[in-house]
Amino acid sequence: MPIHRDPDSEHIRAQLSRLTEAVHDIDSSLPRFRLDEGDILVLDNYRCWHGRDGHTGERTVRILTARSSDAS
């Protein structure tokens, strides 16, 4: 969302709308997989656009951040 009183807030809203539309357009073709109890997902947040679908039940998240000399 644009920062409060951003002079370019209309442009930001328009760009966010374009992004939302693009995501909805490709959503059904995106790969999906299920993690079972004990599974671990490791990904590079600098190189991976990711998300998750809604779920029910308990969810535990543990985050470990590791930086390398390649991170900028």
Quickly describe the structure.
This protein is 25% helix and 0% strand. The protein is an all-alpha fold. The chain is extended.
Question: Low-confidence spans: pLDDT under 50, at least 5 residues?
Answer: none
Largest sheet: none
User: Helix- and strand-based class?
Assistant: mainly alpha
Helical segment count: 1
What gap, in angstroms, lies between the N and C termini?
24 Å
* Quaternary structure: single chain
How would you describe the shape? extended
Series of H and E elements: H
Mean of pLDDT: 81
Helicity range: 25-40%
Strand content: under 5%
Rg estimate, integer Å: 17 Å
Number of strands: 0
Give your account of this protein's structure.
The protein is an all-alpha fold and 72 residues long. The chain is built from one helix and no strands. The protein has one helix at residues 9-26. The two termini are 24 Å apart. The model has no long low-confidence stretch (mean pLDDT 81).
Structure characteristics:
mainly alpha; 0% strand; 72 residues; 1 helix; extended
Give the secondary structure arrangement, pairings included:
Elements: H1 9-26
